[in-house]
Amino acid sequence: MIASYLCLVNTQGNIPPSDATEMISISRAEFEALVSANQNYQKVIKEFEEKFLYLQHQIQQYQKHIFGSKSERHFPLDNSQTSLALEGMQNQESDPSTETITYTRKKSGEKKPGHPRMELPDNLPRQEIEILPDHDVTGWKKIGEEVTEVLAHRKGEWFVKRFVRPKYAAPDGEGVVIGKLPLLPIHKGNADASVITLIIISKYIDHLPWYRQRQIYKREGIEIAESTLIGWFKAGSGLLMPLYDLFKVQFLFSNYIQADETPIPVQSRDVPGATHKGYFWAYNDPLTGNVIFDYRKSRGQEGPMEFLKNFKGDLQTDGYSAYNIFGRGQDINLLACMAHARRKFDEAKQNDHERAKWMLDTMQELYMIERKAALIKPDFDAIRELRQTEAVPVLQEMEKWLKKNLTETLPKSAIGMAIAYTLNLWPRLIRYVEDGRFQIDNNLIENTIRPIAIGRKNYLFAGSHEAAQRAAMVYSFLGTCKQQNINPSAWLENVIERLPYFKPKDDLSCLLPANWNNERGKT
């Protein structure tokens, strides 16, 4: 009887018609209890509806990210199903109580074979460079010559630089002189700076893993072991590391930078076959075009805290909570990214098309204003005046709309989360109108991260944490060259040639991309 009566109670808990009450006799207390239970059920239904919308949105995003990808999974069968005993045959097993172990041991004192240098093909053209002694050898007797060959590459052609250094003996037989060999990037190595540049550019700009490079060079008649390529890269990175350390110090002289992070799988030595999820933290100076990548083993706030410990100024980021710690002090002021807020509404179109479209159209007005600002750059005062006149009214209208619609949408729905995300960051989002130097979003730094995402799809992971740090260094220099319209191959080859001549206390700043470009003129 109670179940039948519940069907007659509406969602507002109103008393049913009189004819219904005549059918069932129920007390007032029981009725109020049923109404209260019904209200609780409605509340539960609403919570489930919110959760459903949230999960539906999550599924849509996962489908968006993985659409088209395939996963080859192996489901092992039960061993009992794969071992079928044939009729008339018996399993013969060895006695588990005994086993025979054999091994070969080298005699003590034997010398391990060394690693011979790569033989340079005889069919490659030779470029002979004669290096005479600095001493006047008039009247001296030539008693031989030293020949050093290194592999070089220029404009798609392989060749060998052949350094020939004649030796001369003094007339009185009390001295021998010989020309001084130029300092090579790799001590006692046979790789020219042009070859080291080639393999670095091929991997970090053209996204070719070592094994693919090896295959390409082999087709061209150059047999280079993958371990040799890696060894050359490590040697070149060792030369660049002091310059990278200087670059990080000078980078923090800026008072406005952008920050973002992206993951990089790193092979784990602790668990063979598994990878550790490390992170490249990217920092960009929009005014100079300098880019720094800093590798960290985690996405925790320790990474940016350590890197930015000496930074004072304005920091623009997305809504990741690790950056919130910087807004609590007086030295760093935070800006947010309008593109990230816009992305939330773009993802909410399927959930609430009308509201999402209104916000996307309004944000488009802001970006139209930024197009005008780009035409008057670098007059930052004029840009600020333009934003104050045209962008501020649009932002004020957006804020009113956000506050009104926050209470009219489900918190767990896609549109509700987009509104809450934007309102939570609102003070940081509108700060860009205060200074003409500021960007409306973080798109500049996201563009610098894109090569890393492409590279991950090709070389898949870094071989170690040290390898990931070397990659961060290379991406820093190559990303800066791209931002400053510098030919990365020309810069890298010239710097690798010159670095061996610098002493530990010498000033390397002349080799940084911006200074190097000012010396040589833009290519």
Q: What is the fold's blueprint, element by element?
A:
Elements: H1 2-6, H2 18-23, H3 28-66, H4 79-82, E1 126-130, E2 141-154, E3 157-169, E4 176-178, H5 193-204, H6 210-219, H7 226-251, E5 256-267, E6 275-284, E7 291-296, H8 302-307, E8 313-316, E9 332-335, H9 338-347, H10 353-375, H11 380-406, H12 414-424, H13 426-429, H14 443-459, H15 465-483, H16 488-498, H17 513-520
Parallel strand pairs: 1-3, 5-8, 8-9
Antiparallel strand pairs: 2-3, 3-4, 5-6, 6-7
Could you name the key traits of this structure?
disordered N terminus, 4-stranded mixed β-sheet, 17 helices, 9 strands, alpha/beta, elongated, 5-stranded mixed β-sheet, 523 residues, single chain
Task: Give your account of this protein's structure.
It is built from 17 helices and 9 strands. A hairpin with a 2-residue loop joins β2 and β3. The chain has helices at residues 2-6, 18-23, 28-66, 79-82, 193-204, 210-219, 226-251, 302-307, 338-347, 353-375, 380-406, 414-424, 426-429, 443-459, 465-483, 488-498, 513-520, and strands at 126-130, 141-154, 157-169, 176-178, 256-267, 275-284, 291-296, 313-316, 332-335. α9 (338-347) runs antiparallel to α12. Residues 1-13, 18-22 and 68-94 have low confidence and may be disordered. The strands form 2 sheets. The chain has a 5-stranded mixed sheet with strand order 7-6-5-8-9. It is 46% helix and 14% strand. It is an alpha/beta fold. Among the domains are: 2-42, no CATH class; 126-178, no CATH class; 256-445, no CATH class.
